[in-house]
Amino acid sequence: MISVSLCMIVRNEEKVIARCLDSVADLMDEIIIVDTGSSDHTKEIVSRYTNHIYDFEWIHDFAAARNFSFSHAAKDYICWLDADDVFLEKDRQAFLKLKNDLTSDYDTVLMDYVLSRDFQGNAQLFTRRNRLVKRARSFQWVNPVHEVLVVDGRALSSGIEVTHAPMREHKDPLRNISILEETIRKEQGNMSARVHFYYSNELMDHKRWDEAIDSYESFLRREVDYFEDHHAACGQLAHCYHAKGDAKKELQSLLKSFEYDLPRADICCRIAYWHEEHSDYEKAIFWYEMALTREMPPNHFGLMNKICWTWAPHVQLAICYGKLGQLDKACEHTEKALEYLPGDANLLANKSQLEGALRSLKAAETKAPAETAAIKNEGGG
Fold first, then answer.
1. What is residue 209's predicted lDDT score, i.e. its pLDDT?
2. Interval 268-314: pLDDT, tens
3. 99 in any annotated domain
4. Where does the record locate the signal sequence feature (predicted)?
5. How far is CA 209 from the centre of its chain?
6. Is the model's pLDDT at 184 over the cut of 50?
7. Residues 14 and 156 in one domain
8. How many angstroms separate the CA atoms of 228 and 226, rounded?
9. Is residue 252 part of a domain?
10. Which of helix, strand or coil describes residue 137?
């Protein structure tokens, strides 16, 4: 069995840190906590779980803090988490099995990072992370914010999920963009592609639409270093144009994503919805149907909206077919959506309404020929 060091950086996490450590403490062989300046009871709470607690003077650099935490690890592999992450019970059991089965041939283990779930607990919005890495490889974190662990070697896709479960949004809303702007200043305008992409994202998040558009477009003119970022930038650029009310450029931005990868279900759904908003239901149906044919990329690190690969296209197809009066097709896709979300109240209500409308339509179609025949018979008398 391999041994694992858990490495975390924390600051003022008294509301969530115990929940996180309760979910993983018995899975880890040591716990390393690096505190970057807590003024609450975080360190007191953490001391119940470990005596490996280190202070790190905050220098506005998340990568530096994470590398410092990694430097104190002593076990075979390093696992990293944020304070508002948890392992659900199914993932705890899967992690235990992984510890028993994993061989030293693997340099990194990939786990899905689930950002939201549906009411049945299924992952909706998620991405993927190198979550468990071999300590001997001395992998390093880069970028002061939106930091990335740079790894290579043999990777294992584990299927284990880490669930992000924030209790509230407590970070400074200007923190990330301030760090990025300071990084750009230090680089004297020669920002790396990664910084360029994340700075564009921050501009978008702050609704600085014109600046975000300029930044994304200049980023997309750069040579492709990591194609997932270019692919994602197309979707973000489309969002900015949508906010600006420029429908034509919104669609052009979505279509531009095809330069970087085969059509993905989430992009297909966005193109479909663009046509749906413009009442072009036949084109919307084409793109929703296209989404249903796409398989999720097996080795992705971008943000994925899983509903676009599962029930969402069926829901929208039911709406589009309903608009065209094709109620049988609308019923069919509502049924398929219910296969993913059994018991969903809205879908069940839609199903009942559609089936009622379809029965009325069929009854009217049956009645009409009978009435026509009666009129003909009367005329013949």
1. 98
2. 999 999 999 999 999 999 999 999 999 998 777 888 999 999 999 99
3. yes
4. none
5. 22
6. yes
7. yes
8. 6
9. yes
10. helix
